[in-house]
Amino acid sequence: RDIGVTGVQTCALPISSGPAAPSTGAVTGKVSFAHWRGEDKAVFDELIKRFAAKHDGVEVAQDISTSNDYNAQALQKLRGGSIGDAFATFRGAQFKNFTEAGIYTELKDSQAVKNYQKGLLSAGQNGDSQLGLPYQVVFPMPMANLDLFDKAGADVAPKNWDAFLAMCEKLASAGVIPISWPGGDVGNGGQLFNCMIANNAPVDDMCAQIEQGKLKCTDDWFIKMLNQYKDLKPFVQPNATGTAVEPAQNLFSQGKAAMLATGSYHLAAVRGLGAKFPIDLVFPNTTSDGKGKYEGAYNATFILGVNSASKNQAAAAAWIDFLSEPENAGYYANQTAQHVSVDKVEYTNPDLKRLSPWLQKKTALAARFQFNNLDVRNAVEASATAVISGTSPEQAAAAAQKIVDERL
Fold first, then answer.
1. CA atoms of 65 and 98, how far apart (whole Å)
2. pTM reported for the whole predicted model
3. Of 167, 335, 394, 396, which has the fewest CB atoms closer than 10 Å, so is most exposed?
4. 258: phi then psi, degrees, rounded to nearest 5
5. Is residue 242 over pLDDT 50?
6. CB within 8 A of 4, min separation 6: which ones?
């Protein structure tokens, strides 16, 4: 499947002897599984039951944090090995930090790795090593309520930026908020950035180059993108820059907003809030002529690994192998409404079936996860938030660049 895995940045750090594979032995005892997806707890509980039924005397306990806490604290928690025998990481800065800290074991010869689509494994690679297995394929693009689009006569696949704005105008004229955007939540509010930057940037590793000082937020192409954020200002809900993710989800789930500018990873959450309407994704194509390189954005994340400090690596590795079997990955995918990187998975969830064509499109690997310094990432993304709250694009760009320069 070609889903646009060009421009992938792998962190080729020199590792003298390379990490060791997980130690082998009896699959027994207690496994701590550390991750941030509290919404998946019940699904993992069922998979844990199935795993325990296959291996006598093994138990798996989930250690779940919020995504922000996990980003900030997981490395410290996992170093000692008492938590997170098996664990997940975010693509980008967190994966790099865990790699440099030697938390991972080598999975390239594992049973699990054979079950993945090869093109989707790069986010878990470091040089020749396969340190982690990216489990999820998500689309950080606005979700659309197709019933509201139909009522407004709005095009769900606008070909260029003017067409995207015209679509928003139609939705607004029909009496709904075009875009529900959780601008007060850094993790979720920043997902729109992946779409806005994809066809504006001159290179695929644009965020890495901003961090390295090779590109600047004050460059013309970046200011053009911020001007497009300014174009969106009339189409987001009041106080969008102060809105947390739950109120943003509610506006969408209740049919008050036509789009939720987070991504497909919130499908299960909005269904849980009672949304019954058909959902698709919309790509804000920022080009003027519709000839952009990309038709969407995706991310391969929730990178599964086995902790090098774990005292129970054999059982932790067996748990990762189990999750990576197509039948179990399929159960996870269909119950959580998330596509997975595992091959030969059968999607029965109606939302996943509807969104599956996006797996074949030319999609850009989510650019915001190229940043290795979270201060830099937050500053660059905050320029977009500042523009929506009324700062001029030039001022917002200069403020962001000042912080980038200080970190260089």
1. 17
2. 0.84
3. 394
4. -80, -30
5. yes
6. 294, 295, 296, 298, 361, 362, 363, 364, 365
